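Q: Can someone sanity-check these two? First one:
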Amino acid sequence: MDRMDFVRIGLAAGAQGAIEAQLGAPRFGTGGILDAGLRAQQAMMAAGKLTAHSLTSQYLARIRTLGQAIIEINSAALKIALDMDRERHLRRLRGPLHGIPVLLQDNIATADRMRTTPQPSAPAGVHALRDAHLVARLRAAGAVVIGKTNTANGAGNGAAVAVGLATLALGAEADDNCAVPAAMHGLVGVKPTPGLVSRSGVGVGVGVGAADGMPGPLARCVADAAAMLAAMSGVDAEDEATEAAAGRSSDYYAQLDADGLRGVRIGVLRNGFGVCAERDMVIEKALFDLAAQGAVLFDAELRAGTPDSAAAVEELLRAQHFGALVGASGGGLPSSARHPHVTVPAGYVQDQPVGLALVGPAFGEAALLRMAYAYEQATLHRRSPQMPASVSLARA
């Protein structure tokens, strides 16, 4: 299988199995538990039908079959998974990420035998002396880092999650590192407000990365992305930008609400319409679904002649009291360095996923995730990958 075949598989990926698992149904996608969300995986672990070691082993086996996007595997992954199983046996659960396999982009520093590539153009990686701040937080939350994807291939982390090579992935580079892979592969992607997540140990010489290169989660459903964001957020003394977020990070996972759209004022930016009629129809249907869930929609425009897109977004949100701006992901909605951005699956055009983008006020992640969750639960657009399972469903 060449790289383009791998990308095509990723583009065709969906996650009805993950959504069914999130709702408690006993069915999964064609890849079994590997295509499910962390709620289903945690439920099986709690019932004694799955272990972190078994789950990690199955993902590693699938990586060996389909893992062109994975450039390096963590040789300590199975040991870490065993440690998480021992803690579970002792009833020392760290949270929703306990024992859950996660992939990182290779420009995120890890204090293990995996190399860290500071920039896409770097010919070879280096061995970092310590974890990036966000990696340390993910490990503390019980996540099992199983490998790294290629920074030079921006869609690699998205394709990896789409075809079920890990439950979660984290990307960190500029130019919509979360929005574009999420939209391409039918995933949920979150670009946080700068300062919510530390950039210490992320790219740019593995120091503090660029302001617009915010690391963010990629997942098969909103609940998974929310749990990952909650775990990785926090103040870091080595990244002064995080001081602005002191006291702001919260348990986004626990705050999800299927009624999260009711009464929310949303501005619809239509400047990206007219390029693709079929995509426009998908987004128009998404707008109808938002309204059906209680959102109040208004056509909106960014003030012409404003050179700073972030300032224009801020002005529009405040002037119209909008909880969010909405449009097609990658299609006319401005990429603002200062505002959080959530992409959620909205449907398909000729089997290619279309993402609905929600942009909100700075540090408004909790509200955006509630909106995205309400929309996701009302529509369930994501589909399971249509391919044979490379490994069997784990059992006790």
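And here is the second, same format, sequence then tokens:
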Amino acid sequence: MRVLSWNIRAGGGGRTAAIVAAVAAHEADVLVISEYRDGDAGARLRAGLDQLGYRWRTTVVPPKGCNGVLIASRRRFRQVGPVSDAVAEPWRLVDVAIGNLLLTGVYMPNLRAKEPYWQALIGALGTRASRAALAIGDFNTCQAYLDEAGASDVTAHFLDAVAATGFCDLWRHRYPEEREFSWYSHRGNGFRIDHAFLSPRAHTRAGAVWYSHAERLAGLSDHSALLVELG
């Protein structure tokens, strides 16, 4: 199973057709789209995904003008719903069950606003280590001096909390010393803030994991796509 995670920036807007074409080229089974918005752009995106065979989609919809997560799949899944109703915008953390895999689509807020979302997610991951589970998306969080050149992220400690649950940062596990960025600021500073965390129960299922930068370089989004293959 191939999972593609991509922040499409502000709902896609006039880039929607090109975004759908870029998604099609990756032949993923499951999509986790962040900065998904409802409205005209959302309708065009869903219609385009329909044509690609992504017939199963989450129905948790962000309010007008808000960003959230859309999970779309060519495989049948069961909607579980938001990870937590205790956060202000529950449409940022969404669960589905695909076979025996519990998949969480993630789109964290910026700065310290993400703290309650991290707390909710860490609490959930702590109960899922014994089952097959994947949390993937835009976490807006990175390790100092490794996923960024400096140490600007005051919430980086949550990545240590993920590791303490037993969940594995798939890309970092595969490339422990390498530096690759999935988003760049307007100043040209690079950050790896798009991640995939897999439960210890599912570690043996992990296949290839990589970033596709072509979409970002082409201006379709300010984020690169993240792809994960699971056996």
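A (reply): Looked at the second one. The chain has one domain: 2-230. Helices lie at 16-26, 40-51, 115-126, 157-164, 170-174, 214-217.
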